[in-house]
Amino acid sequence: MNNYPIVIDDAWFTVSQIDQETFAISEYGHWEKVHSYLLIGKNKAALIDTGLGIDQMKRMTDQLTDLPIIVLTTHVHADHIGSHGQFDEIYVHEAEEDWLVNGIQKLSIEQIRKDIGRDITRPVPDTFDPSTYKPYQGQPTGLLHDGDVIDLGDRSLTVYHTPGHSPGHIALFDVRRGFLFTGDLLYDETPIYAFYPTTDPEDLVNSLERISQLAGVNKIFGGHNTIGLEPDLLEEVREAVRQLRERDVIRHGTGIHSFAGFRVQF
Fold first, then answer.
1. Which ranges of the chain would DSSP assign to H, the alpha helix?
2. DSSP assignment, residue 95?
3. Which residues on neighbouring strands pair with residue 154, listed in sequence order?
4. Is the pTM of this model over 0.90?
5. Which end of the chain, C or N, has fewer beta carbons within 10 A?
6. Residues with Cβ within 8 Å of residue 251, at least 6 apart in sequence
7. Structural domain harbouring 112
8. How far is CA 97 from CA 32, 54, 104, 137, 193, in A?
9. Domains contained in the chain, number
10. Which helix H or strand E contains 69, and what residues bound it?
11. Is there a domain that residue 100 lies in?
12. Is residue 69 part of a domain?
């Protein structure tokens, strides 16, 4: 699951070092095995997602950098925005601004609390109570758009709008390093979900096809499970897209579809 050296093994968080300026902040004590990523530039740092909100992620980032941090939201689901409230600068794709401000109208708080509180295998802080847990809501500092380039100083990230799992989902590409951060668009082990009412299977397949065609990818960093997937997975993604279209199964209710290295669920 993790081939990178662990630099902080906290009660809740595990911080792994991908390179000198790139860290994964993982929550292995929760069944979702969520990863957030801290990317350090010369002038500022970017935090891709902020995890579950079970514990305070700023406690980790404070140990890793003194630079100003901007939060880049891959998508507005509770397990990726949990610590947003601890940071001053938050960015989200324009299609999910309303979700960040007002919450996801078609997703009940009861379901969110059930998912956040089950199958936990590490001690949680006293401040966490699943029965009163509320996802972050707030006004973003700014909005992201497809093709935006975020300059951190000697390091830049390109924004790709990759809807399907959610309407404003984004992937981020660190071109110089070849690091592709895919959020919940692509990861291994558990199915990539597009079966909720707020998802779109056709969009998801189109987004998978789009990232599979990116040149220069050296590693893929998803929002869950294994940290650092090999780029040859993108060849499997291209083949999966072809098969899904050929089988005519790209719609809600067709179940789990398995391929070499990943699965999708519609």
1. 58-64, 97-102, 109-117, 201-212, 233-247
2. G
3. none
4. yes
5. N
6. 201, 202, 266
7. 6-265
8. 24, 23, 11, 10, 21
9. 1
10. strand 69-72
11. yes
12. yes
How far apart are alpha carbons 49 and 163 in whole angstroms?
Answer: 16
1 in a domain, yes or no? no
- Residue 227 Cα distances to 141, 192, 234, 252, angstroms: 29, 15, 16, 29
Our CA dihedral for 204, 208, 209, 211, rounded to 10 degrees, sits at: 130
**pLDDT tens, N- to C-terminus, the chain (266 residues):** 568 999 999 999 999 999 999 999 999 999 999 999 999 999 999 999 999 999 999 999 999 999 999 999 999 999 999 999 999 999 999 999 999 999 998 778 998 999 999 999 999 999 999 999 999 999 999 999 999 999 999 999 999 999 999 999 999 999 999 999 999 999 999 999 999 889 999 999 999 999 999 999 999 999 999 999 999 999 999 999 999 999 999 999 999 999 999 999 99
What is the 8-class DSSP label of residue 82?
T
Residue with tokens 């758009």: 145
Angle, to 10 degrees, between the axis of helix 201-212 and the axis of helix 233-247?
140
117 within a domain of the structure (yes/no): yes
Residue 183 belongs to domain with CATH number: 3.60.15.10
How is residue 229 annotated by DSSP?
A: B
Q: Tokens standing for 9?
A: 């093994």
